[in-house]
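Report of the visiting student (M.T.), summer placement. My assignment was to run the structure pipeline on a short list of targets and document each run. The first record concerns Enoyl-CoA hydratase/carnithine racemase.
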Amino acid sequence: MTEAAFGGSAEQTSEEEVGLRYEVDGEIATITLDRPEKRNAQTFATWSALAHIGDNLPQQVRVVVVRGEGPSFSAGIDLRMFTPEGVPGQGSFASSATLDGSAFEKRVAQAQRGFLWLRRPDIVSVAAVQGHAIGAGFQLALACDLRILADDAQLCMKEPALGLVPDLTGTKPLVDLVGLSRAIEICLTARTVKAEEAARIGLAELVVARAELPGAVRDLTGALLATNRDAAVATKRLLQGASGRSLEEQCAAEAREQAARVKALFS
Ligand code: ACO
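After the run finished, the structure tokens were exported:
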């Protein structure tokens, strides 16, 4: 998992910079952001490692839990990325400024790969968020299908305050979840959204006391795994496609998926 995503070589990128732990237990994969002393700040190596996990996810995995060690889920991008020196072996935004537009966009797309796979229909991804989820941390939580928040969670899309845009796949799920006006307000003020508000406006499925977060994740995971796998995959696929289809198209898609289910179950 020591691959550099942005301008560094694997040899130059230490496990410390990757900052991830990854465990598979049967049908559950758990990804833990594991640099608590730096509030689980993320580097390009972190995103590369996330993409690597997605590319190599064992076929039996049905639920992917994304969590953070320590007081914060993630304080976002490693702020060294904004210094001229950057992160050893990984370059920096300053060095990326010299790239032409398409080369830079390719690098961003490479980083986004670490987040995009969490929406695959064959898995359900669950973010377990305590403390701060700032910038890339908020976007990682948004990349997951579901979010369980501890009551001390604080979400902040800080990028605009730093002169940047959120570019780690977070803008679409944010708009889908809270609507355009609320998304504009949250991003352009870069304010903190606390757990109770997050649940109220659709950014969290559940808020629990901090100590209950692991138990709540276990309960949700158990409930998700109790359903028929193929039906779960087909249903997620249907739900994901719903907003892009007319009612008639969605009804036709339901009928197609059901035909395949009935055939699998009864023939
Ligand atoms: N990158 C690198 N190091 C970080 C980051 C970060 N994003 N966030 C925290 N750290 C480090 C601190 O420098 C400190 O290191 P040190 O002990 O060597 O001095 C350590 O983590 C602990 O940080 P504190 O600030 O002491 O922790 P605290 O719990 O009081 O505050 C908080 C946490 C609120 C997250 C604060 O650290 C913070 O504001 N961090 C920066 C958040 C940020 O601006 N992120 C970028 C968003 S934009 C994007 O992600 C694209």
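The CA atoms of residues 175 and 182 lie 8 Å apart. Residues 38-39, 41, 71-72, 75-79, 132, 134-136, 158-159, 162 surround acetyl coenzyme *A (CB under 6 Å). I thank the supervising group for their guidance throughout the placement.
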